[in-house]
Amino acid sequence: MDSRGAGELFQAQSHLYKLIFSFISTMSLKTAINLGIPDIIHSHGQPITLPKLVLALQIDPAKSGFLYRLMRFLVHSGLFLKTKVDKGGKEEEEEAYDLSPCSRLLVNGNAPNLTCFAQSVFHPALSDPWKLLGDWFYREEQNPFHCTYGIGFWEYGSQDPEYGKLYNEAMVSDSGMMNLVIRDCRSVFEGMQSMVDVGGGKGAVARIISEEFPNMKCTVLDLPHVIEDLQDTENLKFVAGDMFHHIPPADSILLKLVLHAYSDEDCVRILEKSREAISGKGKEGKVMIIDIVINEKEDKPELTDPKLYFDLLMMVAVTGREREEREWKKLFLEAGFSGYKITPIFGLRSLLEVYP
Ligand SMILES: C[S@@+](CC[C@H](N)C(=O)[O-])C[C@H]1O[C@@H](n2cnc3c(N)ncnc32)[C@H](O)[C@@H]1O
């Protein structure tokens, strides 16, 4: 074999080892969250040195070297930043750890905070089904989640209240990000008298919209166990129901991260019910979808990676998928809609406005 061939082989080995060991990224992140390192750095008020981090974590100083190696990896992976702080006097500067934009999203009390989202993904309820992914290809159940628990994901949420609560809080934390852009897309909601957030969970998004547009009547439709303890406000109402059977009439329907959890057939059924719900508004009504649009050609790998992770998660836990624009279009036409517009304003997710 010539040296170029060997070079390619070693490159392939590095790539393979990166894939083999990528669970280490997840486990290190999980460890940082469980130890509360983002909160410690945040409450320190400035970058924290290793000895001070050891002290704050109340661990044996003999373990400093191990903590240093964990932090080195987490700096490398972009969770934390490494910087220098003054040691005081004439002494040299000392290395210290700071929050990166990524770990700022894990500080409790900060908004938005995605800690719950991470914990709901790491939880055995959602991580155990991955062990049966290979077996599932030879089995009859609709997904590995079913193979593991014998029931579907939404039913599981009602039977395991501890996980159900964590999952709903995870979705609230994900929706907290909406606050950042809702003012930028006022025109999307302007002129609407009413909106139903279908599968709206604990109402995080509907609450943001109802506060921003006090004249709009907002309704959250979700399963009974999800909304049972929630209080209506002046212009926000919680309704228990099944989106496959009936969606209350309104000027607009919002479906945030709902359709990606369902098969094409189920999506068409939900979209048809949505179209019925806005029919009173004639051509003026619309359905607003906030979901992933896969665009491997144009997106950078940093964006495509998490989109494809979500796609596999939808395969393992529920019956859904992430879709390319042509797949979305097919669903809209099948459900009887005539046009749509895609605006990629939510990072990983886009706003898809669909017209009757
Ligand atoms: C992925 S979550 C999205 C929650 C929320 N839209 C958000 O983005 O924060 C899907 C939601 O659909 C709800 N759901 C599942 N099946 C439903 C049904 N048949 N009718 C109404 N809601 C349902 C779930 O309880 C859950 O709150």
Overview of the structural elements:
The model has no long low-confidence stretch (mean pLDDT 94). Strand 3, helix 14 and strand 4 form a beta-alpha-beta unit. Helix 7 crosses helix 12 and helix 11 crosses helix 12 (161-175). This protein has 2 domains: 3-104, Orthogonal Bundle (Arc Repressor Mutant, subunit A), CATH 1.10.10; 173-355, 3-Layer(aba) Sandwich (Rossmann fold), CATH 3.40.50. By secondary structure, the chain is of the alpha/beta class. Helix content is 47%, strand content 17%. Strands 3, 4, 5, 6, 7, 8, 9 and 10 form an 8-stranded mixed β-sheet that branches. It has a two-stranded antiparallel sheet with strand order 1-2. The N and C termini lie far apart (63 Å). S-adenosylmethionine is lined by residues 154, 171, 174-175, 199-201, 204, 221-223, 226, 242-244, 256-258, 261.
Radius of gyration: 23 Å
By CATH reckoning, the class of the largest domain would read Alpha Beta
Q: What is the strand tally?
A: 10
Look up the CATH topology of the largest domain: Rossmann fold
Ligand roster: S-adenosylmethionine
The helix/strand series, from N terminus to C terminus, equals: HHHHHEEHHHHHHHHEHEHEEHEHEHEE
Tell me the number of helical segments per DSSP (H or I, 4 or more residues long): 18
Instruction: Name the average pLDDT.
Output: 94
Give the percentage of residues in beta strands: 15-25%
